[in-house]
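User: New here, any thoughts?
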Amino acid sequence: MGWRKMLACAVAVSLLVGVLEIGQPIEDYYRMARNAVRQHPPSGDIVVVGIDDHSLEQVGSWPWPRTRHAELATRLKEAGARRIFFDVFFNAPSTPASDRAFAKAIGRAGNVSLAAMYSRDRSTSALRAKLPLMEFQRVSKTVSVAISYTGMLSIREMPYRTRYGAITIPSMAAALAEVDGPVGESFPLDYAVDTRRIPTISAGDVLTGRLKPGAIAGKDVVVAATTVEMGDLYYVPGVGQVNGGYLNVVGAETLKEGRPVAIGWFLPLVVAFLLALAYLAIARRWVGRLAIALALASVTVLPLVTEARLVFFDVIPAVLLIGIVTISRAWANFRQSYKVRGNINPVSGLPNLNALRSEGPADDAVLVAARVRNYAEITSALPSESERALVGQIVARLALGARGARIYQGDEGIFAWVSQAEIAGPDQLDALHALFRSPALIDGRAVDLAVTFGIDGGGERDLANRIGAALVAADDAATEGLRWKVYDPAKLADAEWKLSLLGRLDAAIGSGEIWVAYQPQLELATGRITGAEALVRWSHPEKGEISPQEFVLAAEQHDRIDKLTEFVLSDAINAAAAFEARGIAFDVAVNISARLLERPGLVDVVRWLLLDSRLEPGRLTLEVTESAAMTSGRTSIRTLEELGSLGINVSIDDYGTGFSTLEYFKRIPATEVKIDRSFVASIDRNASDRVMVRSTIELAHSMGRTVVAEGVERPEILAELTKLGCDRAQGYLIGRPMKLIGLTKLLLERAKSDAA
């Protein structure tokens, strides 16, 4: 590939990454590192009065009555607060007396600002403004807390002003900093401001008179939620989840430092392009090295300098361009040198195994491989210049058995040659092995050589396979204590089995080798087993139990998943119908491949199976992995919606492993979320896992979805999940995957126990 084509490809890839923001997660991590270097405390002019757990314990559970907020505003004003900002919404009326008391209190306090934002109507998906009540607007100012977030609920920038119908409202951050800007223009946040050092006071201490004198005198106060329980959480790179009130303070602290500017990624990419052009086009080596040095400096040192002056830019597309160009150039140089040296062993000058592969033996020839098993041990003990002498002595002995054939040297003591069958027999190899009983003399030192030989006589197969076969035979000879061994073609059986696996799969379904196991699910509220996940199994009469990962993945990759899925669906639906006939309400869950969602016919198959068994659609759950859900196209979404319209439940499986965003969470028409075992396994010991599980449960419940936790293996985990409000649990503690007869016995025993 010429350098012009190389550069064009690098530019195309970098532009694509920049436009689609594919490199944003890496960009965030890189910026986190720079923020850690530049970290500095806030000004201290802004104090957060937090509605925290302490406040809720002292004053009462949330939401508070308006009279409580009125009392808080009065006490803050009495304590000398310069301005008061409520990051709490007062857009809906409460009792007339409470509203009048609040309006009177903020009017007396003066210089009070109340929050406004947009919210999305769940029924219509339309945006509506949440503005303070008009009676509050008459005696206060209004500030906007409307912000847009990226994946993982992270915020990178804030607007100066936001339009609400015919009016524009300044953002809380801009109002706190007393900086104004046009509508539609945003500014980047400087996360080098240490959020952990923002002055914070409990609202409970203010209301109960425990506020230290002078703590807020002359300062701006932001009243906001500071507890995880109240939500309003966002991800701050390098810090973790923080409440929204702190983000407004970070925005204000950023504006207090100066007017921040976000350049974006395109200008740095242009600079990187020019430096890459100089690196590739100018023949002088020092110019190329200087260009690369400047490029590296521009993406490492320069961002630290500019961000300290509030000039922010994204570097990942530029880094990618420089990386592609330098790696491609290095690879091209390597390939060029490899063409010259690639077929020669650099130590001995002998042709290597690549040379042997390119030449290829005659069909009736025998391939002999010799492996010096202690070669690495010997060479590690010898000076580097002595290795050539060692190889010379080894080759001199092998030449006696090779009878004039060309000897090839591989890595780590591997040697091979092609011989005729009549001069590669047992007697010749025994004699050759005897030669190696005498030690080699290297620089006056006696060195013992442990050698075994392998023979491959099959000329039908590819030469690369034959080299491998001869080496396998040599290794087997060493393992079995032999001098040499002929490769056994029976070793191909396992490889042939894997190649013919898909063909055997269809027959296995018909013969009963493929069967369905059921892992029970426990309803935590009642302690009853109310369902199970259907899991496919393959019991081969000769191979034993074959891993589902092996044959399911192969079926997916080679478009053979349809029949296997229909078999599992049919078995699971019929099992649930059989339980229904016994008066046992029972749900079944079946995994669905992402490939099937893109194909027509899945909905018809499921509909027909339900009608044939007379099972209620609500008893069936189809599980789609989170990664598949995240990458689902329009066809897949329509398929899931159509399945849901039939009354069938849709579950997002392995939730938490795909780094999905709230947008994807809302986009998938699911009725259930299944939390991955990696988060469940240690929620009683790992605080971050517990927060993740709890927030997932709360988010799912707020959207009307049930939650299943998988991988429950200890009673402590089950107790914790029950406390967090999880709906169902699945794991070895509840039951291992079992045959239908075992599941039936378990359910009947539980039914008798409950009746007793």
Residues 596 and 602 are 7 Å apart (CA to CA). The longest helix spans residues 316-341. The domain at 500-748 is CATH 3.20.20.450 (TIM Barrel). The chain has four domains: 3-24+263-339, 43-259, 353-494, 500-748.
